[in-house]
Amino acid sequence: MNKPQTDNPLRHGRVTTPASRGAVAIDLGVLSGWQVDEMEGGKNFPALAAGPFPAPFQTDNPSVAPPADGHILSGGKTDARDCVNFTDEEMSKKLNRAFTWPLINVDAGQVFKVTWKYTAPHTTRGYRWLITKDGWDPKQRISRAQLEAQPFAEDFYPQVPYYSHAGELKAKVDHEVKLPANKKGRHVIVLMWIVANTGNAFYQAFDVDFQ
């Protein structure tokens, strides 16, 4: 007998605190936990093309195609998980009521802490953090043009090649980053858990309000 979809063995991991867009979608009943665990797409983002992971990590498995604009927050998934890419207006239509993505209050320059729950650990290269530009438009889906051109933080294990250090390249349960010091108001943060031995990263998104 086939296992039900909710016990899908391919799930991998998600942030449990603070609440990501995926967590909000779970609370709204529009996504299941396994779906948020599987928001994986090409790890070379914000690059557009599949191909080798940049030096000095080019011995890692090459990236598959990174997510297209408008589908970034779901890791490129365009099924039910596309809802995490929705604007407030799109989600309001889906829910048939007024909706705004809830905001996490933060301070510029603060340490932002996340806790992950992994259901299928991978050999981990590291983590990449991106954020929306000043003046971005919340009425538009997140695109590369809406994001700062460069990540505001990266946390990579230096060991290469990955297959000689697999025991050391472990996913981090508790992970933190210093937020940019020059942001104000509403922004979206994109966090990528980048895997060394596949072509993918797992995408998580957070709506924040810089006080």
Kindly describe this structure.
One of its GO terms (molecular function) is monooxygenase activity. Pfam families: LPMO_10. Residues 12-208 form the Chitin-binding type-4 domain. This is Lytic polysaccharide monooxygenase. Keywords: Monooxygenase, Oxidoreductase, Signal. This protein is mostly beta strands and 211 residues long. It has a single domain (11-210), classed as chitin-binding protein cbp21 (Coagulation Factor XIII, Chain A, domain 1, Distorted Sandwich), CATH 2.70.50. The protein has helices spanning 21-28, 33-37, 88-95; strands spanning 13-17, 40-42, 104-106, 111-118, 124-131, 153-156, 174-178, 185-195, 200-210. The strands form two sheets. Strands 2, 3, 5, 6, 8 and 9 form a six-stranded mixed sheet that branches. The protein is globular and about 50 Å long. The model is unreliable at 1-10 (pLDDT under 50).
Q: Key terms for this structure?
A:
211 residues; mainly beta; Coagulation Factor XIII, Chain A, domain 1; 6-stranded mixed beta sheet; 3-stranded antiparallel beta sheet; 3 helices; 27% strand; globular; disordered N terminus; GlcNAc_Chitin_IntDeg; Ig_E-set; signal; Cellulose/chitin-bd_N
